[in-house]
Structure formats: C-alpha cells, structure tokens
Amino acid sequence: MNLKDNTILITGGGSGIGRGLAEAFHALGNKVIIAGRREALLTEVTDANPGMASAVLDITDAAAIRAFAAEVVAHHPELNIVINNAGITTREDLRHAPEGLEKAEAVVTTNILGPIRLTAALLPHLLQQEQATVVNVTSGLAFVPFPLGPTYCASKAALHSYSESLRWQLRDTPVRVMEIIPPYVQTELGGPHQAVDPRAMPLRDFIAETMALIQSRPDAKEICVERVLDLRMAEAKGRYDAAFQGLCDLSLSFAQAP
Questions:
Q1: Would the N or C end of the chain have less CB density within 10 A of its end CB?
Q2: Is 84 helix (H, G, I), strand (E, B) or coil?
C-alpha cells in the first residue's frame, strides 16, 4: 500500500481514527473521500481540509451501500483504496439483556455487515485497478475481549477473520488486504470520557505511529502500534489468561464510569 497518489474512501471519516487517517492521507497529497451518517460532521472535516470530499452513507443500510458504491465509483473512477473504519460500540449486561437486542444487533450490522457489504460492492471496481487495497480497522479487543463490550469485541474478531479469508482469496489479484489493529485510543467511540482518558493512547500519537508503520512496511498484513502488541500477541505468547484477567479488572473501574 503506497502512501501517495491514491484515491481513498474512508468510512466513519468524520471523527476519531477515521478523521485522523483521512487528514494524514490528505496531507500526503492523496485524494480522500470521507463517508458517514452525519453530514454536518463531514462538512466540518472537509471545511478544515480543502480538497477533501465527503459523501453521506448509512453503513447499516444494504441498499444504500450498493447505491453509494455505484455513485462513488462514478464520481471517483480512480478509487483504489477503501478503509472500512466506521464502527460503534455499546456496553452490555448479558444477565439483563433486553429481549429485542437492538443495540447488539446495531453493532453487528455496523461493524461487520457494513464492511462486508461495502467491500463486496466495491470489489469489482477495485479488481480493475492496477493496484488497490482494502483496509479493515479492527481492534486489539478482537484478540482479547473486554467483558463490558461482548458484541463489539465479537464483531471485531469476526472482521479480523473475514480479513484473513479475503486476503487469501485475493492473493492472485491486484487487491491487497491490510488490517489496522488499534489499541484503546483517545476518541469518543466509547463516550466523551474516552477522549480524555489517560489510559488511552493519544489519537495524534496513534495516527503518527500507524502512518510510519505503513510507510516502513507497505506490504504488511497487519499494522500494530507498540501499545496493542500485548493484546495481539497474548495467545501466541501464552499470556492470554493474564491479559483477559487484566481487562476483567479494568471492567470493574469502567463499570463505574458514566
């Protein structure tokens, strides 16, 4: 994956990691299109970054994804990178789960069905490019789950597994598959408190280290900043139980947060 001369679509590009990646790639001279549900937020980002484009997308709507994919390819035929970043999370008490499970189902629809549907819709176009990349943003919690967010962690584990299979199936094509695996980062994904939590990695530092890793390892399958390696490699290093216990202990303090 080259860092320059690309046309890049980033879902969830209006805030957090998506916005950070969008601005970093934009600063390198790439054509960047950010997508998300909140038009006002997208406009705020594009106003702050002249030349960046935006498009409204409801990643939970299968028909909307197909229409969006056709439109973005028509307007940006040089599109060669898609970054599936949009995601949501929710706390869950599985002992008292509501009968409808609306929040859990929304996480699955957004975090796993959304990327699968968008990738499927754009893949015919990407396969026609000289060089293309599908980037899936997962989480260190795909490898060791945080007990307060079981569906979120499961969705990221599913996206990791999907990325592995997609990479193998595209092995003889011009399309590469890269996975970005963030640690706990200072964004508002889990609420306003997360953006200022000193236990989380500052967003600016995460973006800078991620971009440096991509530059140094453009063909990497996974991009893991130093702070996520303990989770990513916990099982391989025989530390899974200890890592999971650490997240269980952390859950006790998070349970008291608003």
A1: C
A2: strand
Segments of the chain assigned E as strands? 7-11, 31-36, 53-56, 81-84, 132-137, 175-180, 222-223
Average pLDDT of the chain? 96
Structural domain that includes position 107: 7-254
DSSP string, 238-253: T-HHHHHHHHHHHHHH
Query: Catalytic residue numbers?
Result: 152
Q: What is the CATH number of the domain that holds 150?
A: 3.40.50.720
When divided into structural domains, the chain yields a total of: 1
d(CA 39, CA 43): 6
Residue 27 lies in a domain: yes
User: Distance between CA 251 and CA 146 in Å, rounded?
Assistant: 7
pTM of the model: 0.96
Please indicate, yes or no, if residue 1 is contained in any of the structural domains: no
Q: In which residue ranges of the chain is pLDDT below 50?
A: none
Q: Is 165 exposed, middle or buried (0-12, 13-18, 19+ CB in 10 A)?
A: exposed
Query: What DSSP assignment string belongs to 191-255?
Result: -GGGGG-TTSBPHHHHHHHHHHHHHH-TT-SEE--GGGHHHHTTTTTT-HHHHHHHHHHHHHHHT
SS3 110: helix
What is the per-residue pLDDT for 98? 74
How far the first Cα of the chain sits from its last, in Å, is 40
- Residues 226, 201: Cα–Cα separation, whole Å: 10
- Looking at the domain assignment, is residue 183 inside a domain? yes
